[in-house]
Amino acid sequence: EESDQEGGEGEGDGIGGDHERFMLAMQEEQEMYGGEDARPHQHENVLEQQIKARKAQLKKKPLKPVRELNFNEGGRIVYTKVKGDRQPGEPELPEQYTVQEIIGNPGSMVAGFFTSYGHDYVWLAHILGLTVEDLPGKFRSFVFVDSYNHQSNPPGVYRYPEKDVPAKVAKVVWPWMFNFEDEAARREAVKATMHPKLWIIEYRECPEREAFLRVVVSSCNLGEYDDKINNVYWVCDFPLRTDATQSLEPAFGADLARFVDQMLSCRDPTTLTPVEDTATDDPSLLRKQWEEILKRYYMSPEGVHLVASVPGKREGEEAHKVGHLRVRHVLEHNLPPLPPDMQDFKETTYCQASSIGRIHQGDLNMLKKSFCVGQREGGGGLGRKKNLTP
């Protein structure tokens, strides 16, 4: 059973600003007015004022062009550039970047697919240039998959919450993952939810390089607050397909395409009917658009496997398609067997939790059993006697 728990990251809608400020405001409001269900309209006015003030603050800090980065050849693991994070006299690590540097300049982007545990929509509109109408190119399309509060947001495709962002430029998707009523009831008992942190960005062709696709797997949520604390990213650039030898879809590309399709699925998988009439778009159009985008690029990073963590209970083969059991399957079938003289070799496996950094000992033990599997006939694993350190 997969249960992805991150209850400490926030229970608000993520639109009002960074997590810490927004949560403090919500807590004060609940204490003042007697609970979550007794919110007066005055709170909305206060929140609107805060958002306006924040927009004004961001306008005073116009985006500066950032250097164009290159993450070819299997990608790299990089870290957040945090001010004051180094000791006096300690040199700065070369692989430290801001979210803006990893995403790039707004004018170079054609399309973007962003998933996160809540979104800071004011800040995203700023760093992605969503309100700028004179950027180069005729086509710009951004999708934001926001999936952590199904109690109040049924699955569907909706307008970007900032009114000055054109509807044709950006849309918000609440994906179909559970029956809406069942999901709402389930969250009353268990704080478990779907919150991937995957970014996919398509960049236009320029004199310096051809069009390319960038995939980012991050521990960072899409908010200004998370950009100021330590986070880790795997970033990889993929080229356009070139010839018939690349006609077959690599496993990584197929896994990525399947995950994106599921995230953009807003229909009941049984009846194939729209689940909510308030949606502003047919989700099948977005699914088709991203299917075509991903087909243009050849995605086969050597030694890299994409594993999704999806809450739910699974049995049989389905249990090995997601989560830590999928990690175990990948290790067993892709690592060579350890030689006899290394069977008892001890080493440490490091894991990076999400931005909250909250991982319990029980979770570590479960991961250790899957990550450090023993030998199998004709295959491999990390071996049994290992440490697992977050």
Outline the structure in words.
The active site is at 195 (nucleophile). Residues 1-12 have a biased composition (Acidic residues). Substrate binds at residue 197. One of its GO terms (molecular function) is phosphoric diester hydrolase activity. InterPro entries: Tdp1 (IPR010347). By secondary structure, the protein is an alpha/beta fold. It has three domains: 7-59, no CATH class; 76-295, Endonuclease, Chain A (2-Layer Sandwich), CATH 3.30.870.10; 321-389, no CATH class. 27% of the residues lie in helices and 15% in strands. The protein is built from nine helices and eleven strands. The strands form two sheets. The chain has a nine-stranded mixed β-sheet. A hairpin with an 8-residue loop joins strand 7 (198-203) and strand 8 (212-218). The longest helix has 19 residues, at 41-59. It is globular. The model is unreliable at 1-43, 269-280, 375-379 and 384-390 (pLDDT under 50).
Observed structural traits:
11 strands, alpha/beta, nine-stranded mixed beta sheet, globular, about 400 residues, 9 helices, disordered C terminus, two-stranded parallel sheet, Endonuclease, Chain A
Topology readout:
Layout: H1 19-33, H2 41-59, E1 76-80, E2 96-97, H3 99-103, E3 109-116, H4 121-127, E4 141-146, E5 156-159, E6 170-174, H5 180-189, E7 198-203, E8 212-218, E9 232-239, H6 251-263, H7 283-295, H8 323-334, E10 348-350, H9 361-371, E11 387-389
Parallel strand pairs: 1-2, 3-4, 4-6, 10-11
Antiparallel strand pairs: 1-9, 3-7, 5-6, 7-8, 8-9
Helix pairs in contact: 6-7, 8-9
Active site: 195 (nucleophile)
Region (Disordered): 1-20
Binding site for substrate: 197
